[in-house]
Specification:
Oligomer: single chain
Number of strands: 25
Shape: globular
CATH class: Mainly Beta
Largest sheet: 5 strands, antiparallel
Structural class: mainly beta
Number of domains: 1
Number of helices: 1
CATH architecture: 6 Propeller
């Protein structure tokens, strides 16, 4: 009788499909969320054209600035009373030059999941704080020990020198009767479990809170939650994305969906003013696109939508009418963060695509060494 490691199974990887006439031109940023220390840019043909090596394993979120530098969250383990050792613990955010030089780094205890560069040049991080017992006792929904500590998210704005200039404490603004844990059997150890941040033009913030299946709109001036999106339709969503049309796009994971279908994921778009759903995409066979955790959605300049099915490492681009035009599977299978052995995975937290004009004058550092501002496709 023979046995083998699951990591040895044959799987699809790299570019698996491309419609050269309808795929958006551009380069896609990919990074594993399981371990490793690299971030890659991939062109329309699936060729890796640039690579950054980070000073720590990639955290849950990377982005490129307009000048071609990389903003990266990193996993830096500390002895936090709740986050220590959890896969979504972060701890660091940094900017690296195109050539990989570390330009600045900020570390903050309690940082998890996402961190973004704000329009004012500061960074905004997701943090966490323990909920007072009297408030935790009033929070509805979820399963687990009601007497155990409950944690909820914070937002922390810091300068790139590490100075805290603004902070939002979730349990001071959430409503135990409205912000209900669920749907389904979600752990009461966390009230909100935020996993993504987006900045609005007026400086207000959109925060995806998975445990309450809601995207919160938060006023920077008052801290008030001024709007809740998807609380009656989402199920453990990720990745709030503000489109050029001023709508909100998310990856709705659906592992705890209560509509009677087998678990499936969808991409869903909300009108920011009315809160109504204005567009969605599901696979023609609903459960064929599914990731219980992680994942992302992005509206592209040509109207297509890029989705990252996180736990499978699959990136899919679809048209507005839902036709697939590009598919890529992360080929990098790595051991858990900080380890050299153990189960290997190609999972990703998100993928982002950037038009080639963003890379004018830059040259690739991967297998494609030509200038990156032009070309690609047929």
């Amino acid at each position: 009788m023979s046995s083998g490691c699951a990591g040895d199974r044959r799987r699809l990887e790299g570019l698996t499909y491309r419609d050269p006439d309808r795929v958006a031109e551009g380069l896609t940023l990919i990074a594993g969320s399981w371990g490793g220390q690299t971030v890659h840019l991939v062109d329309e043909e699936g060729t890796e054209v640039h690579e950054w090596r980070l000073p720590w394993p990639p955290g849950l979120g990377q982005d490129l600035t307009a000048r071609g530098t990389l903003i990266a969250n990193g996993k830096v383990r500390d002895l936090h009373p709740f986050l220590d050792g959890l896969p979504f613990q972060a701890g660091a955010i940094a900017e690296l030059s195109w050539e990989g030089e570390l330009l600045w780094e900020v570390r903050h205890p309690g940082h998890h999941h996402d961190g973004i560069l704000l329009a004012n040049g500061n960074v905004m991080l997701l943090g966490i704080a323990q909920v007072p017992e009297a408030i935790a006792a009033r929070v509805q929904g979820g399963i687990g020990d009601d007497s155990a500590p409950m944690w909820a998210d914070t937002l922390v704005e810091l300068t790139t020198d590490g100075d805290v200039v603004w902070e939002w404490i979730g349990h001071e603004h959430l409503d135990p009767g409205i912000d209900v844990i669920g749907p389904g059997a979600m752990d009461r150890a966390e009230w909100t479990h935020a996993n993504g941040i987006a900045e609005l033009p007026d400086g207000d913030l959109l925060v995806s809170a998975r445990q309450i299946s809601t995207v919160l709109r938060i006023s920077r001036s008052t801290g008030e939650i001024t709007r809740r999106y998807g609380s009656d339709s989402l199920a453990g969503q990720h990745s709030p994305w503000l489109t050029e049309a001023g709508t909100l796009l998310v990856f709705d994971n659906g592992f705890n969906r209560q509509d009677g279908w087998p678990p499936y994921s969808r991409l869903v778009e909300f009108d920011l003013e009315t809160g109504e759903e204005v567009w969605e995409y599901t696979d023609p066979v609903r459960w064929e696109m599914f990731s219980a955790l992680q994942s992302s959605a992005q509206r592209l300049e040509n109207g297509n939508t890029l989705a990252c099915e996180g736990l499978t490492g699959r990136v899919l681009e679809v048209t507005a009418s839902g036709e697939p035009v590009w598919e890529y599977v992360n080929p990098h299978r790595v051991s858990p963060a900080g380890e050299t052995s153990g189960p290997r995975s190609n999972r990703m937290f998100r993928a982002r695509k950037y038009p080639r004009s963003r890379f004018a004058g830059l040259r690739g550092g991967g297998s494609g060494s030509a200038g990156l501002g032009e070309g690609g496709g047929e």
